[in-house]
Amino acid sequence: MSISDTSERTPPSQSLVQRFSNPTRFMAWSEKLLPWVSGLAALVLAFGLYASFFIAPADYQQGETVRIMFIHVPSAWVSMMAYSVVFIASVGFLVWRHPLADVSAKAAVPIGAAFTLLTLVTGSLWGRPMWGTYWAWDPRLTSVLILFFLYLGLMALRNALEDEQLGAKLTAVLSIVGVLMLPIIRFSVNWWESIHQKASVVRAGGPSIHWSMLWPLLVMGLGFSLMFLALHLMGMRNEVMRRRILSLQRSRAGQRGTARLQSGE
Amino acid sequence: MTEQLSHGFFIWASYGVTIGVIGSLILWLTLTGRSRRVQIATLTKEPVRSNDE
Hints:
The complex is a heterodimer. By secondary structure, chain A is mostly helical. Chain A has helices at 16-20, 23-55, 69-96, 99-131, 139-160, 164-178, 181-191, 211-262. Chain A is built from eight helices and no strands. In chain A, helix 2 (23-55) runs antiparallel to helix 8 (211-262), helix 3 packs antiparallel against helix 4 (99-131) and helix 4 runs antiparallel to helix 5. Chain A is elongated, with a radius of gyration of 22 Å. Chain A starts with 15 loop residues before the first helix and ends with a helix. By secondary structure, chain B is mainly alpha-helical. Chain B is 74% helix and 0% strand. Chain B starts with 6 loop residues before the first helix and ends in an 8-residue tail after the last helix. The mean pLDDT of chain B is 84. The chains are: A mainly alpha, B mainly alpha. At the A-B interface, helix 3, helix 4 and helix 8 of A face helix 1 of B.
């Protein structure tokens, strides 16, 4: 099935997921959903930023620098969430051959790369005043850097191949292999000696952050997640449109050829 | 070096970079979407010609 088959109809026997993942239906429902998700993300982020700067107290050790945490930690969450989306979509593409799964994987990669870059930069800017260095070859920092290179590798691999189907398959395989990075990043602070602090939100025994700082962090986490959803929908819509353009150009070229043959040129 | 830079510098630099990166991402996705919509509209309206010009 081609992604540009805009006239296809989904039989009523298909599942809800299959119905919504029809490219034409996707373009229709995502167009309606996008302004709501974007608006909600903007509202939640605005409130989260206000809470991060004006409600959350300064840390007794870190002082005001703790405010970097309110963008660093959600960026790290989203960088891993984006990779989870790439992984699930890649499995979906390889198993069910659904073109929208490939669209989803492709669209999530540059967004994930951007958030991983933000994680590294904001972490570095936090590290200089707190640890006395912008960078250390620490297991957590190094594994996040590898995740960033993995995202770049996925983009490079797809763009290096002219055959789009082959590119999609190979990037899906690489994405599935690369998912090993997620547990490595998550548990790197437990498995090896690390200057990075251990998990302080999702951990056995409950969060170790005081509630006055935890709730603004969770609000920012929700805001970043909604922003990722909005950006991912935009990216997916752009990719569906790119494939539609290619399909239209091919059919136009075919029609021109037929018209030329009929006119005897 | 750090002694000369206040903590405020690191905080604002972090938020500045974040706004810059996310803003660029939004701009790139918005402009790409807009240009593709225009391209689809052009291709859909364009009449089929027998010769390439």
